[in-house]
Design a protein that fits this description.
By secondary structure, the chain is mostly beta strands. It is built from no helices and 11 strands.
Length: about 120
């Protein structure tokens, strides 16, 4: 499964950005999709995930500000980020856990998209 992200960029504190990720490939069933981020000098951390049934999970630091959504028919996942602050500055990675038909479970990552929030 290939994941391609879009929508990163520069925002001011208090502003908004929307990230999108599209999955492509053949012979797979996607289970959970999500977003992770990695700031300079820090480990990659979970931001939000969403199951195929629509159950969501958020990091405490983004609850109430970020919203993850998904279109199962199009194999896309989006992250609406509101009330951004400089601590949200990071490279954001799309992630998908999927079942590769006939082979088994696997995981894919996107290439990452930079989000920079200025104060």
């Amino acid at each position: 499964v290939q994941l391609v992200e879009s929508g990163g960029g520069l925002a001011q504190a208090g502003g908004s950005l929307r990230l999108s990720c599209a999955a492509s490939g053949s012979f797979y069933i996607i289970n959970t999709m999500g977003w992770f981020r990695q700031a300079p000098g820090k480990q990659r951390e979970l931001v939000a995930t969403i199951t195929s049934g629509g159950d969501t999970n958020y990091a405490d630091s983004v609850k109430g500000r970020f919203t993850i959504s998904r279109d199962n028919a199009k194999n896309t996942v989006s992250l609406q980020m509101n009330s951004l602050n400089p601590e949200d500055t990071a490279v954001y990675y799309c992630n998908a856990d999927y079942y590769y038909i006939g082979i088994g479970d696997s995981r894919s990552w996107g290439q990452g998209t930079q989000v920079t929030v200025s104060s």
